[in-house]
Design a protein that fits this description.
The chain has 390 residues and is α/β, with parallel strands linked by helices. It has 13 helices and 15 strands. Helix 11 crosses helix 12.
Length: 390
């Protein structure tokens, strides 16, 4: 069933179908529309979830931690400063191997205070042990929210995950979304069954104990192995989803897109790499550039954590020039995504020219002209290794 709806509400519809046992909600712009719509579902009796109105984002993630530790599915959503406030508990959730589900509606971090979109909030949490997937459209936001439950709760993974959606530029935009019947989703996403014993006095269990120096490194190593191993599971789940719900796949998108999506890369001499809704703008510019004979394509990164280093190196090594367009900056380093891609190419002993283009920080509009300039600079080797596109 196809409906035109706000992208935030599309995520709410997916959460409704998953029907988490516990939903912890705290409002923060621009994610508030997600939990507001979910509260309507609970109030109307459409889902039987326990809806907790907590006093902060720290409390929201803590409530999810406690709920998940008892053996039930839990969900929350947040943005920006709210995600930063969760930082301490994010490490605890992943360290306890609790598959908490979260939606992150990306927004810039203060100061100066800014409520508009960039990716600095979620990129800042890349080392917490959470799976991170980035979406371009409302449909992808809906689809990925369904998939994240099956990915996180897989017994080979058992890790928390966040689906990252651009604030306002996507979250508040109305687009056609194909909604799947709940019965079909129930077949695709099985009921959550905890791997560990639930908190029960009759079954004593210690969760999150002290880790002495003699054992702490082993625990961290296990988490790293789990995150790396989730790459295969994510691919499997995406393949299963595409097979079960073929109508969810736009004709413009390859049927098999796992971790990345390639757009008009065939015959291209150079490519841009990006994440999130800006990929739609880039695709429009590439369409026009192709008409003018400019051989350029796009590699859209969906899976950011775990980082698909080998896949990216394999795909990008066939191009002479790579331009990484990212809505994040690491002061003292530069574009974090560009540096990670450069590292992947180095490990693979591949050396295409790679350039970093910092775009859209603090919600600055990324215009067609910006992308056109990036393509021109990449083609002509103009400018510095890293360029800020104002």
């Amino acid at each position: 069933m196809k409906e035109v709806m706000e992208a935030s509400h599309a995520v709410s519809e997916a959460v409704k179908s998953l029907e988490p046992d516990v939903i912890a909600a705290y409002p923060i712009t621009p994610q508030t529309h997600i939990v507001e719509r979910i509260s309507d579902f609970v109030a109307n009796g459409e889902i039987k979830s326990e809806y907790m109105r907590v006093e902060s984002e720290f409390s929201a993630i803590s409530a999810c931690l406690g709920a998940q530790a008892t053996g039930v599915r839990s969900y929350t959503s947040t943005s920006s400063q709210g995600l930063a406030l969760m930082n301490e508990v994010l490490f605890i959730v992943s360290g306890m191997r609790l598959p908490v589900l979260m939606s992150v509606v990306n927004r810039a971090l203060s100061a100066p205070i800014n409520i508009w979109n960039d990716h600095q909030d979620s990129i800042s949490e890349r080392d917490t042990g959470w799976i991170q997937l980035y979406v371009e459209t409302a449909q992808e936001g809906y689809d990925m929210t369904l998939m994240q439950a099956k990915i996180s709760e897989d017994k080979r993974v058992m890790l928390p995950s966040m689906i990252c959606m651009d604030g306002f530029t996507l979250s508040h935009v109305y687009e056609p979304v194909n909604i799947v019947e709940k019965a079909e989703i129930d077949e695709f996403v099985p009921k959550y069954e905890p791997l560990h014993a639930v908190l029960d006095p009759k079954v004593p269990l210690t969760q999150g104990p002290i880790g002495f120096p003699s054992h702490y490194m082993e625990f961290r190593n296990e988490i790293c192995k789990a995150v790396d191993g989730s790459l295969d599971v994510i691919g499997e789940v995406m393949a299963d989803f595409n097979k079960k719900f073929p109508n969810q796949i736009p004709k413009s998108r390859p049927e098999e897109y796992f971790h990345i999506e390639e757009y008009k890369t065939e015959g291209a001499d150079m490519v841009l790499v990006a994440m999130g809704s800006v990929c739609g703008t880039i695709k429009d510019v590439i369409d026009e550039a192709r008409k003018k004979g400019v051989a350029v394509g796009l590699v859209k990164l969906i899976t950011y954590r775990p980082f698909p280093a080998k896949l990216l190196a394999e795909k990008l090594s066939k191009f002479s020039k790579v331009g990484v367009c990212e809505k994040a900056i690491s002061p003292g380093l530069g574009g974090p995504l560009c540096n990670e891609i450069a590292g992947a190419l180095y490990e693979a002993n591949e050396r295409p020219k790679i350039r970093s283009f910092i775009i859209g920080l603090g919600g600055r509009d990324v215009k067609l002209g910006h992308v056109e300039k990036i393509i021109d600079m990449l083609a002509k080797d103009i400018g510095n290794k890293e360029e800020w596109m104002y």
